[in-house]
Every structure is written in structure tokens, then in C-alpha cells.
Amino acid sequence: MIIFGVAALAACHLAGVILGDLLGSLLGVQSNVGGVGFAMLLLIFATDWMRRTGRLPAISEQGILFWSAMYIPIVVAMAAQQNVVAALAGGPIAIIAGVGATVACMALVPVVARIGGQDEALPPLTAQET
Amino acid sequence: MEIVEILEKNGLVFAFVVIGLVMWVSYQLSDKLSAGRLHGSAIAIIIGLLLAWLGGTISGGSKGLADLTLFSGIGLMGGSMLRDLAIVSTAYGVDMREIRKAGLAGATALALGIIVSFVVGALVAAAFGYTDAISMATIGGGAATYIVGPVTGTALGASSEVIALSVAAGLLKAVLVMIGTPFVAPYIGLNNAKSAMAYGGLMGTTSGVAGGLAATDKRLVPYGAMTATFYTGLGCLMGPSVFYLVLLAMFGN
């Protein structure tokens, strides 16, 4: 059933966020530390185990793939509720600090990505892989 | 005005229609105007940000289009709950070996990304006359993400004006990353899992990285999101502690 895939995804999401919250309070931070990252790792391990033991039939898989396919529309909805007005109203300090940090960090990507050897580019996308 | 009422009552469902339309228009524009060079999702995100600006200007609120009652469903659809669920779902099918291989680069990226953002933010703050350690740490935090700034500022007791500046700096960074990623991707080699993990760790803003990588190549999303998710927490940890103390030792009160 599709709901089994959705439920597995949701359970991993919650378990990861709870872990991230625990880690945050252990470190004494008022913020979640790595919750979504833990959730992703949990999902990778859980679905791998389910697939190997035959507990993840293709139909359950659809429950996860649906949300994965909804990712971009959800991100567009996220963009539509950003506080763009405040972002533009901060004056020169906010603009220079925001732009400066963004540019400086972008410039470091090739440097950091070289650690442990350069990786090959992904193969080009096929026509409708979106 | 019956119809408006019905749409408001079915907010999330109406949001699906609105976002569906935005996606359709975007992919048409991508095809017809840019011959597919500018990815449809990049255009969709830019339209989303424009709508957010429009909504924020009309309502005077802080949640963009979602502040208009008619479009409140957009708030649910793009809120952190469904956004994080969708981000987690992209990890399905991810290659664990890729993540292990990029572990060191990812961790380095995180540390470097937080430090560089704080330093840039603090320097800009000082250049504009905010030379006290508290303000420098707060604006530095804002240059990391729009959450690290206010968390640092609140912990240290910064003025509300400085906290507002730090939020604006962080928001601008998120918007820039969302729009800019597909354009800079070819120049910084952002085309494989490892560079995506480095990117997530260096930029840190979850919304920025989530949107920017989606507009570049959806297959990179899980790798970038994986490292970005540690950024804000680590920034909140280091801002009011290590960074503040270093700044205090260097510049005093």
C-alpha cells in the first residue's frame, strides 16, 4: 500500500528531527542540529533494509517517490513566502554582508570539493527526468 | 464573494492549483523564451520570490504571499513541515558510498562556510561603525543564516536594530543562493555529489540551498541538503560562544 511508503518516510522524518533536537539541547543550542540530515540517513538505511528483505514493494515505493516529485513545487511555494521585502529593505550593511558572504562562500566550493580527489560530473539529464 | 470564501476554506488545495499554474507558466517560459537554457524550476523559484515580494508589499507582513488570506495555503504547502518531508524523501535512492566519500569535504565545508560568513559579516559591520563585539557577532551570524543572526543577537543582548540588520543579511543570502545557484554552477564545478555536499556546507541556508540546487539539477538536492542541515545548528552554537569571545578579545566592548 502506498501509505506504507509515506508512513516510513514520515517516521524517518520525525525520528531524525527528534534526534536533531536532542543533539541541539545536548549542545545547549536553541536550534535543531542536523535533524533533516539524520532523517535522510535513516531513510536511506531503512529503505535499503526494507528492499533487501522484500518489505518495500514498488507500490509502497510510490509513496516516497510522490513526495520526492513534489519537491520542486514545494520549494516554489517556499519561495513565495520568503520575507523578500525585508531582505531588500536592510540597507547597505545587510546588502554588502549578505552578498559578500554568499560570493565568498561560493568561490570556495571548487577548493573544498577538491578535498580527497575531484569527482566526475553526473551524466546529463534525460529529456523528462523532472 | 462566495468563491473567495471557498478558496480560503480549501487553502492547501488552492495552493496546489496556484503552484501548478506557476510551474506550467515557468516551463513554458523556459521552453519558448530561453530554449530550455534557463531551467523551468529556476524560473518558477524567481516567480515565487516575485510573488513573495508582491504579497509582502500588499500585506505588510513577513510571510510573503502567504500573508494574504486567500493564499494562506501556500504557507502550509511551502512551510517547513512539508518542505522538510520533501527534502528527506529526496534521499531515497541516494548512494551511501557517495556520502561517505564526501564526508571530509562536507565537514570542512561546514566549518569554513560558517567561519567565512561570520568574518565577512563582522568586517562589514565594523566598516559601517558597529565596532562592538556584540553587534559584529550578530551581523556576522546574519551573514551565516537569518536564524543564526537573531539567535546570536538575542543570546548576547544585541539591539533590535542590529538584529533586524542580521535578519535582512541572512534573508538576502537565502534569496541570492536560490536565484544565483544555477548561474554560478558551471563556474564552480557544481555538477556532482561531492561538490553539492561542499556547496550545502558552505552556503548553509537550507531554503537557499534547497531552491538553488533544485533549479540546477534535482539529483544534487539530497547531497546539498544533507550538509546544509547541520549549518544553522552549528552556527547557533559557535556564534554566541567562540565567535563572540574571539571578537571580544580582538575589539573589546
Provide an overview of this structure.
The complex is a heterodimer of chains A (130) and B (253). Chain A has 130 residues and is mostly helical. Helices cover 71% and strands 0% of the residues of chain A. Chain A is built from six helices and no strands. The longest helix of chain A is centred in the N-terminal third of the chain and has 25 residues, at 2-26. The mean pLDDT of chain A is 88. Chain B is built from 13 helices and no strands. In chain B, α3 packs antiparallel against α10 (160-184). The longest helix of chain B is centred in the C-terminal third of the chain and has 31 residues, at 221-251. Chain B is globular. Chain B starts with a helix and ends with a helix. The interface between A and B is large, with 84 and 118 residues.
In helices, the fraction of residues of chain A equals over 70%
Largest sheet features of chain B: none
Largest beta-sheet characterization of chain A: none
Number of strands of chain A: 0
The tally of strands of chain B reads 0
Most extensive interface between two protein chains, with residue counts: A-B, 84 and 118 residues
Q: Kindly provide the radius of gyration of chain A, computed on alpha-carbon positions and rounded to a whole number of angstroms.
A: 20 Å
Oligomeric description of these chains: heterodimer
Please mark out the parts of chain B with pLDDT under 50 across 5 or more consecutive residues, or reply none: none
Distance between the termini of chain A: 24 Å
The SSE order of chain A reads: HHHHHH
Q: From the alpha-carbon coordinates, what is the Rg of chain B to the nearest angstrom?
A: 19 Å
How large is the count of helical segments of chain A?
6
Secondary-structure-derived class of chain A: mainly alpha
Mean pLDDT of chain A: 88
Beta content of chain A: under 5%
How much of the sequence of chain B is in beta strands? under 5%
How many domain units of chain A?
2
